[in-house]
Design a protein that fits this description.
mainly alpha, binds zinc ion
Length: about 250
């Protein structure tokens, strides 16, 4: 069904007209098309900026709760969609996003450092508790944590722990468990008598160094050192004996 707009005189489909809200039957359409109405309102707003602003403000003042409620509802309603959109944008513009983040961080470095320090101080106990719980609940987490700590000192960020492994965390967990000897389980994983630890078959300390004395990331031998195939479970006491041998070869 088509209808002529009283303003632009164009013949348009009725979908391009708003329903006439004063009509109780709900069947009548406005006499001017949506487009003409929009450009009229825009024109009106531009010519009556102050008036519109004052009107909006007055409306807000008398209907504060309603306005805020509507805002909140609309926010909630479109939340997922918006998050989806943001995510999509980030993955489409990864470089821009990372660069922006980096810039923002470096421009606000002091604020970040202060914020994290304060946050940590104020939540020290819950951090410790969270960490403890996570360690207990997840052997995978403990394995990776222990590797990070041990390798961190030697590798000094030259290569990431998980990258060097050459397998994912779950695989590592199963790989280690498959090598358990009698009596080993996740319950006695740790330091101390009657417990077992994660051991590097070829010791990490034997790594090849660059001329500067750092970890040589290009050395195939070093790559073998951090690879999962160089890891095994070893009784704590055997491991202590082994490292003593390395530190004091005589
Ligand atoms: Zn029109």
């Amino acid at each position: 069904m088509q209808k002529q707009c009283g303003k632009c005189k164009e013949l348009k489909f009725v979908e391009e007209f708003y329903k006439d809200r004063s009509d109780k039957t709900g069947k009548r359409f406005c006499s001017t098309c949506k487009q003409c109405q929009a450009s009229y309102s825009k024109e009106y707003r531009l010519q009556n900026l102050e008036k519109v602003k004052a009107g909006r403000k007055a409306y807000y003042e008398t209907n504060k709760d309603l306005v805020l409620d509507r805002l909140k509802q609309s926010y909630e309603k479109h939340k997922n969609k918006r998050l989806e959109k943001q995510k999509q944008w980030v993955s489409d513009n990864k470089d821009t996003y990372l660069a922006y983040q980096e810039l923002y961080r470096s421009n606000n470095k002091d604020r970040f450092v202060k914020y994290y320090a304060n946050h940590y101080q104020a939540n020290k106990e819950s951090y410790a508790k969270y960490y403890q719980e996570k360690r207990q609940a997840s052997p995978t987490f403990r394995l990776i944590e222990s590797l990070r700590t041990r390798q961190g000192k030697v590798l000094k960020g030259k290569i990431s722990t998980t990258k060097g492994l050459g397998c994912d965390k779950e695989f590592l967990k199963d790989y280690i468990a498959a090598q358990w000897t009698e009596g080993m389980s996740w319950d006695n994983y740790g330091h101390g008598k009657g417990k077992w630890v994660l051991d590097h078959r070829l010791p990490l300390d034997s790594h090849e160094k660059t001329e500067g004395g750092d970890w040589d990331a290009s050395s195939p031998y070093n790559q073998k050192l951090v690879h999962y195939t160089n890891l095994q479970p070893l009784w704590f006491e055997d491991n202590a004996r082994k490292s003593n041998k390395i530190v004091a070869p005589d």
